[in-house]
Amino acid sequence: MSVQDILSAENELTHMLGAQQAVVLSTRIRLARNLDGMPFPGWAKVPQRKEIAERCVEALNRSPKFRRGHVLRMGELTDLDRAVLVERHLVSKELASGKFGAAVISKDQTCSVMINEEDHLRIQVVKAGWHLRGTWNIAEQLDDALGPDLKFAFSEKLGYLTACPTNVGTGLRASAMVHLPGLCLAGHMEKVSRALSQDGLAVRGWLGEGTEAAGNIFQISNQQTLGLSEDAILRHLSGWIKNVVEQEWNARRKLATEEGDKFVDRLSRSLGVLRYARLLTSAESMNMLSHLRLACDMGCLPEERRHIVDRLMIEGQPAHVQMRQGGELDSDGRDLRRAAVVREALRDFPEPGPPTA
Amino acid sequence: MSQPLKCSLCEEAATVHLSQVVQGKVTKVHLCEACAQKGGATDPAIFQLADALIAPAVAPSLICPHCGFTDIDFRKRGRLGCPDCWKTFGDALGGLLIKVQHEATHVGRAPAGVAPVGQMRHRLEVARTEMEVAIAAEDFEGAARLRDEIAQLELQLSNS
Q1: How far is the C-alpha of B157 from the C-alpha of B1, rounded, in Å?
Q2: Distances (CA, A) of A1 to A8, A71, A107, A327
Q3: Subunit contact A156:B79, Cβ cutoff 8 A
Q4: Of A68, A176, A182, B128, which is the most exposed, with the fewest CB atoms less than 10 Å away?
């Protein structure tokens, strides 16, 4: 099984197989779990890390969720393979940078488990659109299925024990990937982000911790993992996401009404650049694709084109562009290749009309 | 000011200086560019973590008997050595946990076969309050139901 197989396989996030939504791109649940009696990966010696990886991979192979899935050992992959997996959010930068990490990915790419990251196991479930309960239910089932086999470190007082105090307790990080062009264009994003962080939620860029919010895409997640039940954490996030989605729609409608022609002009210019540019940087294409997505959401472009925009956002990332080309490219080469991919995909896009949403 | 300040997290030269005023007491955190970026300006947890890391050590050296991890290691890495470390460092980390998590006790799920004691304790507290409210509102049927639930929870907790 190669990384190429994962990229070419159809999945919810790139092929519109799941229900899509205008504002929430995807829902993610992550559970941090550790094996009782084993040192955490950052402190474990090499033979211990290998033992941890073997035990976890074996247990995951027995789980029906991962039947015919992929087992990827970081030490056996090229730099480009690992970078692509990071861009797909299937593994973290931290996992990709170590030699003894592994990732087990389900056939449909909904479930992935990182082994030997900061914790022994990071169980992840991702669904396209906003499906917090459904995503949680899958994660809970996986947790229940793996627990008896692997014997997770647990204390009555502190819950699931993790390497970092920021994850102890439930080990749960629930998040939504949201596209907020309306709030960004209206200049409200800073205010929203402050309100969220004051109420215990973290707002990050699209590749997670410490990354830029390219394409007006943000990841919103809970911070607190201790002293709240899983249910309370999910309800808190859910309430805020509903609120943010509503504010985003208000901002979009207000912009469309107040700006009139200027609003459509902005979206049309972006389509123009994307269709005719010969060199496109990653940041520029993300920001323009964000406008196209907004155009699809607002009825300026047909809604059924949205998944093409979503796919370009993923496939226009640097490692994806290189993987498609079949090898490493310098920055100019990537920009040239990216522009060609985007141009081809948008060739028959119609002209944006006035908003209907 | 003869020497440049060092980053509270990694000992690089600090270029980002944050002052926090908590209940009239000023605490300062100094971070290098990379750590400040990594933390993200909107992520308060990292700064609270930094606070705790630079706080003077009150306890003498602690060593985990299981994996040899010490409190000095924790100050350097911000992560523990093994699950058993929580037994050794749990008390010393109490203050940090309150800062980062605002709570000190788990109330969520437990692995299969382990009684979710925290959750039961939490429910017990809630049920007791609810019963008082029900009595005050003269909802005696509701109060009776809650009384039975409380008795059941108390029994389960004493057996676990």
Answers
A1: 58
A2: 12, 8, 11, 19
A3: no
A4: A68
Closest by Cβ to A147, choosing from B66, B80, B111: B111
- In degrees and rounded to multiples of 5, residue B91 shows phi and psi of -65, -45
Q: Which fold has domain A3-251?
A: Creatine Kinase; Chain A, domain 2 (3.30.590)
Tell which of B79, B96, B98, B120 to mutate to test the A interface (max A CBs under 10 Å). Answer: B79
Show residues of chain A in contact with B103, CB under 8 Å. 169, 224, 226-228
Q: C-alpha dihedral over A137, A140, A141, A142, to 10 degrees?
A: 120
Residues of A in contact with B118 (CB under 8 A): 156-157, 159
Question: Residue B88's pLDDT band (boundaries 50, 70, 90)?
Answer: very high
Query: Residue A117: which of A206, A57, A42, A52 has the closest Cα?
Result: A42
Q: Where along chain A do the CATH 3.30.590.10 domains lie? A: 3-251
Contacts of A305 (CB under 8 A, 6+ apart): A296, A349
pTM: 0.81
Instruction: Check if A204 contacts B (Cβ < 8 Å).
Output: yes
The predicted complex's ipTM stands at 0.86
Binary contact (B83, A193; C-beta < 8 A): no
